[in-house]
Each structure stands twice: as C-alpha cells, then as structure tokens.
Specification:
Rossmann fold, 7-stranded mixed β-sheet, 9 helices, about 30% helix, elongated
Length: about 325
C-alpha cells in the first residue's frame, strides 16, 4: 500500500511539474459491501484516465463524469454513490448518484481539483522584476523570473512582462506575441517603449498588443476610466480587439485612489471572466446589457457596474 501511495504521489508531482490539471479523488467513507475502502485514492486526468483505485467500473464512470465537472468549475465536490435505480440529486458542494451496478454498499468520494496556478513570465533581474516576482507569488501566481534569451512563453501563460532595462527585450516580446500570451507588457518610458515596439519583427496588429509603459498610469491628479483603466482590456474589446468585451459609457475622471479601487475591481471581474466565464471560450462576450459601463446612481451616491457574460460555461449576471 505504501508503494502504491508513493507512486501516486510521484505521479501527482510529475503532473504538477508539467502544469497539467488533474483531480485527486479520495474515498472518505465506504459502507460495505464495497470494493474500495476509506482512504483509497486515485488521480483522474482530463482524458478520464484513472491512476489508482476508488471503486469498481460503475463507480469509476461516475468519478470520471464528475471529475470533468470539477476540472471545469475548479471547485471541489463530494460524490456520493448509492445503490438503487439511476438518479442523481445535486446540492451545493455535493452530488448524490444512485447506481444499479453496486452490490448493495455505498461510497463517498471527495474530488479535489488540482489546477496549475496562472503562470507569469517576468524577464529581467532588475528591482522592478524582483518586486513583480514577490507581488505575484503573494497573490497565488506562478512567477518565473528569467532573462530575455532564455524566456520560453507559452500560449497558456497569463502574462509576460519585460523589465530588463534594455537587455534582450525584443526576443522575449516577439516570442510572447507569437505564442498568443494574452497580456504582454514592457517596463520602459514612452519614448524608449515606442522605439522598442518599432524594432519588433512582428506585424502591426501584434505590435499594438504590447502595453508600454506597463501597468496603469495613476500618478497624476486624475485617471481616465476609459483610456487608462479599461484600456488594459483592449485585446478583448478595444479598437483593435475581437469585440468580445463591449465597452461603453462616459469618460469619467477619477482621483488616483478611486482609480486604483476601480482598476482592482475590473481586474477581478476580468480574471473571473477569462478563467471561468464568458471570456474563457472563443465565442463568449461580456456586455454591459445596453447600459453605460459605469452608471452613476445619484440617490444613494454609488456607482453600479451592470455586467452580463454570455457564452461561458458558468456565466451569471454580476453586480458590483
């Protein structure tokens, strides 16, 4: 048993090192007669392949089905499999399935998704690069600090940020753009950033996807909602975007502290949309339901953000 547990642990470490998602299935209760016992574990891959043992063929079918759901929602689930005519009852965090294949016993299996953290590639060893590594790791990102020559961005990366102050910037930027990394940024002044962009060996459409100077410019008296805060989402909905994020409404002037709060709110909404909602699939889109994106509400001195996502696997209207 120890060797089996050890081999599963080694397999889990291997999958994690390759940044491959899987489900860790654990039997938490077994009512005899059952072939599995409390404590039995297995790893379930997105393909449905099961490594380990948590029950016979009929139980495995339910484990495969709900493991796919767990990977899609990225939420754990308690699966109860009972004897009886086929039926299922779902509640928050749990689902109960009756299965005529069982020999009379019951089993409960906890399905825990193991999803790799979003990876951010930071190019450079400058103080800015090191600060990004510290901040990113603190919010649950996998931050890879590298140099421009060694950078190997992939399409499933969350971002690539170049903060190397002139060292091998072009190669890293070009590689990220060609790989389809959704957020590509260069830490530089406007003048130097424009010169670096001009030197890139990519077409104009890709060149326009690079954010430089990186981040939001909030140092002045005001920040403009449309140009500075929402401009970060141009790849989805700006003039050169793909039309999946519909932005409309007045150009509001915000004080720096308020602009930071609004930027964080939009970042959270955008992250959820990209990971779980409408922007997680090519056909999905985010629409402020025909209203201005930021609608002042005079009577109670607050702003509403009425957003609706269409096309994603778990889209719900959101109100902030």
């Amino acid at each position: 048993m120890a060797s089996t547990a050890g081999s599963l642990a080694a397999r889990a470490d291997e999958l994690a090192s390759r940044r491959e998602p899987f489900v860790h299935a654990t039997v938490v209760r077994a009512q005899h007669p059952t072939s599995a016992h409390a404590g039995d574990t297995a790893l379930v891959l997105p393909s449905g392949e099961i490594h380990g043992f948590v029950g016979g063929n009929c139980v495995e079918e339910s484990v495969r089905e709900y493991s796919r759901q767990v990977l899609a929602t990225q939420e754990p689930l308690l699966l109860r499999v009972l004897p009886g005519e086929p039926s299922r009852t779902a509640e928050e965090g749990a689902v109960e399935v009756t299965n005529p294949c069982l020999s009379g016993g019951a089993i409960e299996i906890f399905l825990q998704p193991r999803i790799p953290a979003p990876r951010v590639v930071v190019v450079g060893t400058t103080p800015v690069a090191q600060a990004l590594e510290t901040l990113g790791s603190g919010v649950g990102l996998e931050v890879e600090l590298t140099d421009g020559e060694s950078a190997d961005p992939r399409g499933d990366d969350a971002a690539l940020i170049v903060a190397s102050h002139g060292k091998a910037e072009e190669r890293a930027l070009e590689a990220a753009l060609r790989a389809g990394v959704p957020y590509v940024a260069l830490v530089a002044s406007r003048t130097r950033g424009a010169a670096v962009l001009e030197s890139l060996d990519v077409d104009d459409a890709l060149r326009r996807r690079v954010f430089t100077p990186a981040g939001l410019q909030l140092g002045g008296v005001v920040a403009y909602l449309g140009g500075r805060v929402l401009g970060q989402y141009d790849p989805f909905g700006g003039p050169e975007g793909d039309g999946r994020l519909l932005l409309q409404g007045p150009e509001l002037r915000l004080p720096p502290k308020m602009a930071i709060a609004v930027a964080l709110a939009f970042h959270e909404l955008a992250t959820n949309a990209v990971k779980y909602g409408a922007l997680s699939v090519p056909e999905g889109r985010v629409d402020p339901e025909g209203h201005p994106l930021v609608q002042p509400v005079v009577d109670d001195a607050r702003d509403e953000l009425p957003l609706r996502g269409d096309g994603g696997s778990h889209c719900r209207p959101s109100m902030l």
